[in-house]
Write a structure and sequence with these properties.
The chain has 82 residues and is mostly beta strands. It is 0% helix and 57% strand.
Length: 82
């Protein structure tokens, strides 16, 4: 869009909780990039976790560059066929 001052784009990076194509989706990690006039491009990764038994609400958390975050589940990268 002409004259746009800020651009934000996101893409899914990994899913947590799904093994061998089965299971419950427990988390999704997204990579978000922001850039615009007068600012350098910045990228960050965040994970949205589903509540476990007894918890309420969804949780956002930051992820380090290695993407190392699993608490009891597995984290799978997204494949082209998914």
């Amino acid at each position: 869009m002409p004259g746009l001052d800020l651009a934000i784009s996101s893409r899914p990076i990994a899913l947590g909780g799904i093994e061998a194509g089965r299971g419950k989706l427990r988390s999704i990690t997204i990579e978000t990039t922001v850039h615009g006039r007068g600012i350098t491009q910045r990228t960050g990764r965040h994970t949205l976790d589903a509540p476990t038994f007894g918890e309420k609400g969804l949780r956002w958390s930051s992820v380090d560059e290695a993407g190392a975050l699993t608490d009891g589940g597995t984290m799978r990268g997204l494949a082209a066929a998914q």
